[in-house]
Write a structure and sequence with these properties.
0% strand; 178 residues
Length: 178
């Protein structure tokens, strides 16, 4: 596979963010105390890193790959991935707007973590390789290079925000230790 190292690192950080969101949701489900600022911080990370990363994947890799795909299996795979990518912005907005309504927030947070987690799994295990295999022409390679460039920018944001995310993770994963 043509490696995209920043993407691999970003995916790991996004998965960590989803785990923190899950931990917070579990606390809300059991009516334990959760700080609203922690929720907002986790959602900001997810927006600035997770949603941006997935948007770049959609626009710079998946759509150009779909335009080049000829095999029915590739077309179906890419269309499904694009349909899932298209649901993320609205689901994220619903989750973020429900912060003050714990029951609704928990429901949307569960859907969001499942959807993004599944997309990352699919991308890491086969979708990105299939996509990159379709982008071997000069225009496709330009798209891949632009994607890598934008992912480096997102990686810088992720690196800056990750200590705060990890502090929040520790707070909710090991509440008695802090």
């Amino acid at each position: 596979m043509q490696g995209i190292p920043p993407l691999t690192t970003d995916h790991q950080l996004i998965l960590e963010c989803l785990e923190v969101l899950r931990l917070i949701s579990e606390r809300l489900e059991t009516e334990e105390r959760v700080e609203t600022e922690d929720i907002r911080t986790v959602l900001a990370f997810l927006r600035d890193v997770g949603c941006e990363c997935l948007a770049h994947t959609e626009h710079l890799l998946l759509r150009p790959a779909l335009a080049r795909a000829r095999r029915r299996e590739d077309i179906k795979l890419l269309r499904t991935a694009l349909a899932l990518h298209a649901t993320i912005p609205a689901l994220f907005d619903d989750t973020a707007s429900d912060v003050t309504f714990p029951k609704h927030f928990v429901h949307h947070a569960h859907l969001l973590t499942k959807l993004i987690g599944d997309l990352i799994f699919e991308e890491d295990h086969y979708l990105l390789q299939a996509t990159l295999d379709l982008l071997t022409d000069p225009e496709g390679q330009q798209s891949v290079e632009k994607f890598k460039e934008q992912e480096r920018e997102i990686s810088a944001i992720a690196a800056e925000l990750s200590p705060t995310l990890r502090r929040i993770e520790m707070k909710y994963a090991y509440p008695r230790c802090i």
